[in-house]
Amino acid sequence: MKLDSTVSAVVTGGASGLGAATARALAAKGVKVAIFDLQEEKGKAIAEELGGVFCECNVTDDASVDAAFAKARAAIGQERILVNCAGTGNAIKTASRSKEDGSIRHFPLDAFNWIIQINLVGTFRCIAKSAAGMMTLDPMADGERGAIVNTASVAAEDGQIGQAAYSASKGGVVGMTLPVARDLASENIRVNTILPGIFDTPLLGAAPQNVRDALAASVLNPKRLGNPDEYATLALCMIENGYFNGEDVRLDGGIRMAPR
């Protein structure tokens, strides 16, 4: 897909981290960008910086997602690109024993479901609604109607202690990539997924330096945290390369996560 001012994109979770880097990379190519996020102040600032539009969006809510797509399409036109970066995590053992009194508790199911609803169902909700919009477009000169990039995690394959919900949600994103690509193949809409490793995003921004250093040291090569711009580079490659389809690609410096 050729990226220029005739193309529009939606980036969920675009107000910070991987999403913000991708939004900037797309805008640098001339693409008109809509930022979907719950962080209004940051989202509006990035949208203004890029000459795009901010759309407040809760990916777990149908009405919120519908309203965000309607606002984006009214402002910049029907998107041909969707990049799903909205997501979150938690760390709770499936069942655990208190060190203080020996009491036993299990993973609260509402906390498990919350992660699934944001990371997995929220991603699919945006895919389905965006793909339906892309199908209204005429194919471009290269025959394409659209391209979708999702964000999973290396935890989909190397989930650590306490990551049952997070790993399940990201494993679901990986698992649905190929069937969704097959669903949309006849409409010339491609779908790919990135599995990032440990990236220097706001999620890690508050971590003590010794923790950040230990995480960087665990990467095979190079021994550092990933840069969000490196994620953006791969996302744009997946969008621009018309033969990239139905793939799940780790971007992790060769790391294989230990149990903890």
Descriptive report:
Keywords: Oxidoreductase. This is 3-hydroxy-2-methylbutyryl-CoA dehydrogenase. InterPro entries: NAD(P)-bd_dom_sf, Sc_DH/Rdtase_CS, SDR_fam. Belongs to the short-chain dehydrogenases/reductases (SDR) family. With 260 residues, this protein is an alpha/beta fold. The chain has a single domain (8-201, 227-251), classed as NAD(P)-binding Rossmann-like Domain (Rossmann fold, 3-Layer(aba) Sandwich), CATH 3.40.50. The chain contains nine helices and nine strands. The protein is globular and about 65 Å long. It starts with 7 loop residues before the first strand and ends in a 9-residue tail after the last strand.
Going across the biggest sheet, name each strand in turn: 3-2-1-4-7-8-9
CATH top level label: Alpha Beta
First and last CA, distance: 40 Å
Number of strands: 9
CATH level-3 fold name: Rossmann fold
Strand content: 15-25%
Radius of gyration of CA atoms, rounded to a whole number: 18 Å
Query: Can you count the helices?
Result: 9
Q: What's the CATH H-level homologous superfamily? A: NAD(P)-binding Rossmann-like Domain
The secondary-structure class comes to alpha/beta
Protein name: 3-hydroxy-2-methylbutyryl-CoA dehydrogenase
Keywords: Oxidoreductase
Enzyme class: oxidoreductase
EC number: 1.1.1.178
